[in-house]
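User: If only I could read backbone structure tokens as easily as an amino acid sequence. Those tokens are not coordinates but codes from a learned vocabulary of shapes. Could you go through the record with me and say what the backbone is doing? Here is the record:
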Amino acid sequence: MRLLISFAFWLFFARLACAAPVFFPAVSRDAAAPVLVVYSSLDEPLARPMIVGFQKANPEVAVRYEDMLTGEIYDRIVQETDAGQKTADFAFSSAMDLQVKLSNDGYAQRSDLPMSSRWPAWANWRNTAYALTFEPAVFVYHKPSFATERPPATRAEFVEYLKREGSDVFGRIGTYDIERSGVGFLFMARDQEQFGDIWSVIQAMGAAGVKLYSTSQAILERVADGRFVLGYNILGSYAADWASRHPDVGIVLPKDYTVVMSRIGLVPQAAASPDLGRRYLEFFMSKEGQTIMARELQIPAVSPEVAGENTANTMQEMLGGQLKPVPVSPGLMVYLDQVKRARLIARWNEMLRLQ
């Protein structure tokens, strides 16, 4: 549990509008200081410690931080680039597929940095797109409902529990709606790759009257108050925050395998100041930046040079091959293929209906 994080995680794909850009003047107070432009899906209050740390190391640089949805980051970079305009100097997003598509389609430039050769191979696509966080998908459960037995710890146990309890837990299971939740679709697609019998899990949830939601909050608030007994494939970073504030919420990292997603950083090809973008990316990847990520932003760090709680190093030492990070590679773009996406969603719906 302490390996997971405890912070007010932004709601995936649930905000109605972008926040207004926030400007951070240069620490040097030079009104003519160069300005680093960042497009990010992480709420500015959560990102602030990283920006402050960067400016402490680069006092002559001002920062313009634009907080927006993941799809908006992708669309804006593509539209501005195609129009011959300049775009952000750095893009940071949890939409792994869209970030890799930017890289693969020529909208991101190569960034050869001091940490590039030491970055985990799965987290680095041709020195262009880098995974900068390490965030697992977990089972969540209502502790009082499991006072006399332990909660499911594998997908096979999850299915066995649902079949055994039957009508007693009907309508009290929650997971993401993969048609509306980007992270939900990503986790389901990885399940299909990792677990040959995944459709038995989906069918069992359907028979148990599973409820579908587009946000983590909707599921976790129902687990916290006992309306739900279990939540499947919930983003661990958000779950840990709820567990820290709601003692009845428990967390399990699935023992058969635990999918790990990451937020990806890159420097756009049409960046106005690519040198500044690379400096920010370099800080993000540095020991100092990754330590700020783990300790102050409370997001698990991926750097092999950072140890301690809330890091990939510690999780991997304890869990080893149980962890299945989503590789940063063109394989992610399979999830953007509309035909394959439609087929996966159609089978998902079919399995849920087989009650």
Notes: The mean pLDDT is 91.
